[in-house]
Amino acid sequence: MIDWSQFTPETALLGGLMIGLACALLWLLNGRIAGVIGITAGTFTSLNAERQWRLAFILGLVLSSWLWLMLAPLPVAEVTGNYGLLAAAGLLVGIGARLGSGCTSGHGVCGLARLSVRSLVATLTFMGLAVVTVFIVRHLL
């Protein structure tokens, strides 16, 4: 069910435009693709000069959510799942994204914008498996 009272296409559009702008600026100004998994992993393995922009990028991700929280009220999120299971799922997603050489930001946003066939296959794979996983968890288990 969609809670139509919480449907906010304006803020979703604004968020999408901001993500696209940030990705384009990182590409144009730094020659880098805004793949969060690769940037995060590279923070721990890169030389000092590389590490600085990566840390700034991650800090921007964290601070931007706090800034938005101060400017706009957010709906109350209700977590009904098992926290251990959610943490394990997040860890598996991170491992899978690292093994797949990219995540939704790297493949789904930046790769598709560059018309990368590899990114199209990756995005179709993880989105398709997400649909299958939700179907199994919600309807078969």
Describe the protein:
This protein is mostly helical. Helices cover 76% and strands 0% of the residues. It is built from 6 helices and no strands. The longest helix has 24 residues. The protein is globular and about 45 Å long.
Strand content: under 5%
**Global outline:** globular
Q: Number of DSSP helices?
A: 6
Structural class by SSE content: mainly alpha
CA radius of gyration is: 17 Å
Question: Keywords for this structure?
Answer:
141 residues; mainly alpha
Question: Outline of this structure?
Answer:
The chain is globular and about 45 Å long.
Give the topology.
Layout: H1 9-30, H2 36-45, H3 48-71, H4 83-99, H5 104-113, H6 117-140
Helix pairs in contact: 2-3, 5-6
